[in-house]
Amino acid sequence: MNNPGTIKVKNLSVNYHGNTALKNVSFSVDEGSIVGVIGPNGAGKSTLMKAMLGLERSSGSVSFFGKPVKSMRKNIAYVPQRSMIDWDFPVRVEDVVLMGRYMHIPWYKLASRKDKAKAAEALRKVGMEEFSGRQIGELSGGQQQRVFIARALTQNADLFFLDEPFVGIDVKSEEIIINLLRSLSSEGKTIFVIHHDLSKVEKYFDQLVLLNQELIHAGKVDEVYSSSNIQRAYKGNTAVIKEGKEMVVVNP
Ligand code: ADP
Ligand code: MG
Description:
The chain has 252 residues and is an alpha/beta fold. It has 8 helices and 11 strands. It has helices spanning 45-52, 93-99, 113-125, 141-154, 171-186, 201-204, 221-224, 227-234; strands spanning 6-16, 19-30, 34-38, 59-64, 76-79, 159-163, 190-194, 207-212, 214-220, 239-243, 246-250. It is globular. The strands form 3 sheets. It has a 6-stranded mixed sheet with strand order 5-6-7-3-8-9, sandwiched between helices. Strands 2-1-4 form a 3-stranded antiparallel sheet, covered by helices on one side. It has a two-stranded antiparallel sheet with strand order 10-11. It has a single domain (6-249), classed as Rossmann fold (3-Layer(aba) Sandwich). The chain starts with 5 loop residues before the first strand and ends with a strand. The mean pLDDT is 89. The structure holds adenosine-5'-diphosphate and magnesium ion (MG). Adenosine-5'-diphosphate (ADP) binds at residues 16, 21, 39, 41-47.
């Protein structure tokens, strides 16, 4: 890619009933990056993601490769926090994944053989092909998350937004998902991941957006992930000890 595009966030602010959740956040990110969005509980990470996607009322501006979110909907896949999903809703794994195709299927048509093949391929990529007939509620947390990643894959999106994808899942599912995100990024896809486990930050991400209502710092991981930045974001609720290259965060 000679000329990678940019995602630009400018002066983004969100208030809930007069309380500030996000204040004047500005940063930009290069196409093809895996971007970690980090910060303490209640820092506004989910709010930032929803505001970027136009799902939350906000002021400021967001552009994806020069275009507003409205004209990019088909290019964006969003996997919300697992806790936001009603897992008792009776739906089969295959149908959850097929939902990712719906924006590509005209209203007067049913899912075609090609759509079903795409869903099956996505399930294979996350190692869940054997579970396509199962009810989503019967799966483990990690398996459910892999199904939602498969659904995002079938969308053929260029941008992926994942809210805490690794919370409450097993090591194997985490590995499958991070490897998949890496391969998407090497194809030029841009991936935003809200994440709270600071120990994995250097391993998983190319860029970071460190947040606590306001932007603390955004950029390459080495620039952002310093003990002084982490301490500013966590406001003394954490002790950061930097030993050589290792940063130990106590009580985040
Ligand atoms: P994070 O994802 O970093 O934990 P959130 O973006 O979920 O933080 O929340 C940021 C702040 O906004 C928190 O104080 C939270 O209580 C508040 N908040 C989030 N969503 C709403 C909402 N729909 N209505 C009112 N307050 C909200
Ligand atoms: Mg959140």
